[in-house]
Amino acid sequence: MPFISVSDEVAKKSFTSVENKFITKYLPVLEPVSVKVYLYSLYLYQCGQTSFTLSDLANSLQITEDAAKEYFKYLEELELVSITSLAPFEVKILDADNIYGTPKKFKPEKYADFTKSVQNVIKGRMISPNEFRDYFCLLEDYGFEQNALIMIINYCVNLKGDDIRYAYIKKVAKSFADDGVTTAKKVDEKLSAYTSSTPALIKLFNAAGIKKQPDIDDDRLYKKWINLGFEDGAITAAAKSFKVKTVEKIDLAIDELYKNRKFDVKEIEDYCITKNSVLSITIEIAKNLGVYMQNSAPYVENYVNVWCNYGFTFDSLKTLSVYCFRNGKNSFEDMNEFVRKLYDDGIVADISVDGYIKEKAEEDKIIKEILSVCGLTRKIIEWDRQSLSRWRSWNFTDEMLFEAAKLSSGKSNPIAYMNGILSAWKTEGIFSADKITTQTPTAVKTAAPASRDGRAEIERHYYELRHAAEDRAEKALAKATADSVYNGIRKELNELAIKLAFAEIRDKNLAKELSESIEKLETKADKRLKELNIDKSEFTPRYSCPICNDTGYDKFGNPCECMDKLIKSMK
């Protein structure tokens, strides 16, 4: 490795000169020779002198190697450089932005009592002038009272011993300053508060097998866990169940538990027991969907854990993954949309999931038979399922659907033609087979016939148009509900809408209040959508043909103008 190298930040900036911050803030106050050492180091790097050594630099500046090392240590104290190796001696030039403040000249007599007090506290070693200078910087740049900083230093020494490094003291002092604790009174209060939680931390450390004394950083994390809603027993359970032996890893465990809403001791223990099972079910779901996972962790965290928290069992998730694959939803993202829809509809328990799958299987069986009667042998598509749902919402029995299918057999677009027949029957009040006449319903007029080969193409054409419009609307809604703020407002609106439905029957005054609340929430929701740059109109499918909504038939069951154009273009 060359004698002089630079951090990635400096290399990326491609400096060809000295940083202005160094010139304006540090050049006027640094030791003259240290400036030479710093500038010459930059020169060596910029010129690509990779063969230079510490000895070469010392000779060039007419100083000894030991003196050069001392100057580099001085620059390191200011965080302008970093000594990366002592044998061979190697230095990395740092970004001047690492500096915490502006170097100043201090009058020693101003801090005479302070320096004596600090040296009496740190008895294990002599404090260097540069270290004292940094203490002065803390006093002036962060506004510490002298007694406040002495109290912090004393706390650090009691915790770490007389040979404590200055870097730790600086870290603790900065954390106090970040919290606005710079007076002796506030430091005393903070240390007293920390002392009050020390017994709980010691108990936790003993249970987790952590071999250290609690410090301020540990106390800060402990208070974070308490504020998140974890009690001492739950924190201890987390440390034991996750088998971690550092405070930092306990913090990661707590974050994971908080994300998965596990706060009770039993919940935590059960979560850790089933964690391996969740991994196993994730692998099985991926296999069922035909998905290759290079790293299973994101799938566990973002999908399967979420589904389990909804209340779905492993057996239900396996069943749903098979169903998704068979119906073209062969990704975790597609399955997630499907599972969320079931959850929103209240289909979560095993019995309700099994009932849903059974119901869909029966519907597919009916659809297959209808297609067969129509003379079609293709696979079932989503448009078929939507059509069946619509026909049943018109109050037609399966018997009537098969009668319509018989009349549609041989037509250019049988399913779309069935729409026309059923719509005409609905208009004329024909809901039983005994009222069907042999004559085609007056509201149904066939478009110019297409060839048999073109039937599937017409049907597919309208399915693709409608599916594309509805898919765009679903994605727009999914994008909006991915925002926690908007999704929360939307759920609250749904809840109020249900309450309003009952209130309109039982309590008119309450209904009025709920209506006003809904109006305010809708305004709030619209404002949030505007912040997200989302147009609410995108939630409604934008069909290419506003007359037939991409079905091929108008509301009276007549072939739409767009179908005539399509058939003519096919000819």
Describe the fold and architecture:
The protein is mainly α and 571 residues long. It contains 25 helices and three strands. The protein has helices at 8-13, 20-26, 32-47, 54-61, 65-77, 112-121, 129-141, 146-160, 166-178, 184-208, 216-228, 232-242, 247-259, 265-289, 297-310, 314-326, 332-344, 350-374, 382-393, 398-408, 414-428, 452-481, 484-506, 508-531, 561-570, and strands at 4-6, 81-86, 89-93. The chain has a three-stranded mixed sheet with strand order 1-3-2. The longest helix is centred in the C-terminal third of the chain and has 30 residues, at 452-481. Residues 445-453 have low confidence and may be disordered.
Question: How many H/I helices?
Answer: 25
Q: Helix/strand-derived class?
A: mainly alpha
- Low-confidence spans: 445-453
Helix content: 55-70%
Q: What would the average pLDDT be, to the nearest integer?
A: 81
Which series of helices and strands comes N to C? EHHHHHEEHHHHHHHHHHHHHHHHHHHH
Strand-residue proportion: under 5%
Termini gap? 76 Å
Count every beta strand, where a strand is a DSSP E run of 2 or more residues. Answer: 3
Tell the overall outline: elongated
User: Largest sheet, if any?
Assistant: 3 strands, mixed
Question: Spatial order of the strands in the main sheet?
Answer: 1-3-2
Rg measurement, Å: 37 Å
